[in-house]
Amino acid sequence: MTTAAKEFETKDVLANGAGEIDMVVNLGWVEDGKFDRIEDEIRTLKAACKEKILKVIIETCLLTEAEHS
Questions:
Q1: What are residue 57's DSSP bridge partners?
Q2: Could you tell me if 13 and 21 are in contact, meaning their C-beta atoms sit under 8 angstroms apart?
Q3: Left if phi > 0, otherwise alpha if psi is -120 to 50, otherwise beta: which for 15?
Q4: Sign (positive/negative) of CA torsion 14, 11, 1, 57?
Q5: Interacting residues of 50 by C-beta distance below 8 A, sequence separation 6+
Q6: Helix (H) or strand (E) holding 69
Q7: CA dihedral 5, 36, 48, 51 (to 10 degrees)
Q8: What single DSSP character describes residue 1?
Q9: Angle, nearest 10°, between helix axes 35-49 and 3-15?
Q10: What is the DSSP string of 6-67?
């Protein structure tokens, strides 16, 4: 899912009563070392959440030993 789609979905579910948002970090970006894109996506979704809670999930069990470092 693109960041734009995640942002739209975030705003939509919050407008419909969600109290918090869970997002999953794009592991492809982790594997490719695109940490700036990950940070930008988190910032975008946090801005969409305003005062609501944004939980960022990193599926560490799917990372290699090198990616853990």
A1: 24
A2: yes
A3: alpha
A4: negative
A5: 14
A6: none
A7: 150
A8: -
A9: 20
A10: HHHHHHHHHHTT-SEEEEE--HHHHHTT-HHHHHHHHHHHHHHHTTSEEEEE--GGGS-HHH
pTM equals 0.88
Return the amino acid letter for 36: D
In angstroms, how far apart are the furthest CA atoms of the chain?
Answer: 41
Tokens standing for residue 64: 């290699």
> 3-59 pLDDT, tens per residue?
999 999 999 999 999 999 999 999 999 989 999 999 999 999 999 999 999 999 998
Structure tokens at 7: 């942002």
Burial classification of residue 15, based on how many CB atoms lie within 10 Å of its CB (0-12 exposed, 13-18 middle, 19 or more buried): exposed
